[in-house]
Amino acid sequence: MKSATTFLMFQGQANEAIHQYQQWFPDLEIKSLSYMENSQQVAMAILDLKNLKIMVNDSVIQHNFTFTPSISIFLECESVEEINHLVAQMLEDGKALMPLDNYGFSKQFAWIEDRFGVSWQLTYN
Question: Which residues form a coiled coil (predicted)?
Fold first, then answer.
């Protein structure tokens, strides 16, 4: 096996999602980004978030499925301020699957589905 990578397939919102994630995560690095011909739809993008490689694209085929909360990106925050800030941003047009709280296994934990349907688990201990 050469590598393993998280892959997020959107249906027309990939470019918007990439720009949103850049605002949320100043450390997010776009390694590559190409668009479909005569379009703002993403043919393929490679992102790096704290050494997590994420591939992103817009599917040219319409599917009857989207993201599921069963798969999520897990983020360990460095401070209470950081987790509060990220949760507040993600909740704008998103929804809390588990609101920010102390659940025993974490001093502060939240499970958020962003406005694109991508699930994020955030923790601070």
Answer: none
CA-based nearest residue to 6, from 59, 54, 68? 54
How many angstroms separate the CA atoms of 59 and 80, rounded?
Answer: 37
Q: Which domains, and CATH codes, for the chain?
A: 6-58 (3.30.720.100), 72-124 (3.30.720.110)
| Burial (CB count within 10 angstroms: exposed 0-12, middle 13-18, buried 19+), residue 97 | middle
Give 24's DSSP letter. H
Q: What is the pLDDT of residues 9-38, one digit of tens each?
A: 999 999 999 999 999 999 999 999 999 999
CA distances from 24 to 8, 58, 81, 84 (A): 17, 21, 13, 12
pTM of model > 0.85: yes
Rounded to whole angstroms, the Cα distance separating 20 from 35 reads 17
Determine the Cα–Cα distance for residues 32 and 48; give it in Å rounded to an integer.
10
